[in-house]
Amino acid sequence: MSDILEQITKPFSDGIRRLFQPLWDQFARDKMRFEKKRAAFYVDLAATMESQPRVNISVHIERIADRYPDEPKGRLAARWLDNYMIDGSFSEAIRDSVPEEDYAPLMVAERAGDLTKGLKELGGVVTALDATKEAVASIWLSTLFVFVAAQIFIGMYSFRIVPDIESSLPPNVPISDLGLIAVIMHWMSVSIRTVWPLWIVFIVASISIVKWAVPNYVGRWRQWLDRHVLPFRLYAEFQAASFIVALAAVTQRVNNKVVSVPKALQMMEPNASVWLRHHILRIVHNLEENPHGKGENFQTGMVDRDTEYRMMDIADYADVSEMLKQVGGTILETAPKELEKRAKRIQNTSRAVLVILVVAIQGGFNYMGWQFQDAVSTSGYSNAPAQISH
């Protein structure tokens, strides 16, 4: 039981640590800032290397370190230069400073003797994937904003406004005299004030479980979750797009050298998440069972049905490497646009939900206020004869 709890809470605690680590770790801050600009860096470095083909890459790295000593890329370049002097490999030198998905394409291009081309193409891939990330982030921000705003709005009415009205009622006027809406508002307030500690625990537990399950759960329900539940669907779509694009980059022909798909999968598997590793191993199994197969070996549920059919159709007249390149290019072109459209739909839906919630609660409160005034007036009139008689 303790192992299960540790698996569930570890991603959450690791996320908190990564979130706050830049506060005290200069290297973490530099990595975070450089990650957003690395696409342009790769393209610029490739252009410099292309214009000076006989100059060793260490000279370019040293120049960057000297020019920008107080900027993230300058400090990282100094680190890379030290690593390069030890390993003699650019991809190994930058491995701990860039996202894991950047390593394999650069390593393959470097070993094939065309690092310039690898940097240039990786820059284009990262640019497209960054646009996809921004669309995904926009979806999450919209959803989070509506959720937090709803909690604040409902809490304000439940803890402050409704109790204040009820405490102002005359003793001889029960809440039921204010009508059905007032009773609903009353029980909403009572319920929320009663269960809010459990609600907070539920929210934290749900976030922790989902944060663990999204990259780690690969059970019987995972494929259904990837198609119907937003966090799982966004993760699956982005990871699948990144995987196909990276695999296409690794298996492309460079200087008449080609890395086979099984070899490329073997290179990518150690750095993959549990979810991605699950699909990689299924693809490897399919390749072993059907060595002459092409697109059908990628039918693991990683991508949607249309993409699976597209992979099979292209593989009928092209080799697997070319198929991956074409599908990867299509994904890079369409994924950001599709996610942007979905982000707009979710934003509009979220705003509509928030407006409906605000109008409903505010309307209920206004109705409750009118009923309160009527009840107070009626109570005053009913008590007047007794006061005069007295």
Automatic annotation (TrEMBL):
Keywords: Membrane, Plasmid, Transmembrane, Transmembrane helix
Entry's transmembrane regions: 139-159, 171-188, 195-214, 234-251, 352-370
Designated name of the protein: Type II secretory pathway component PulF-like protein
Organism: Burkholderia contaminans
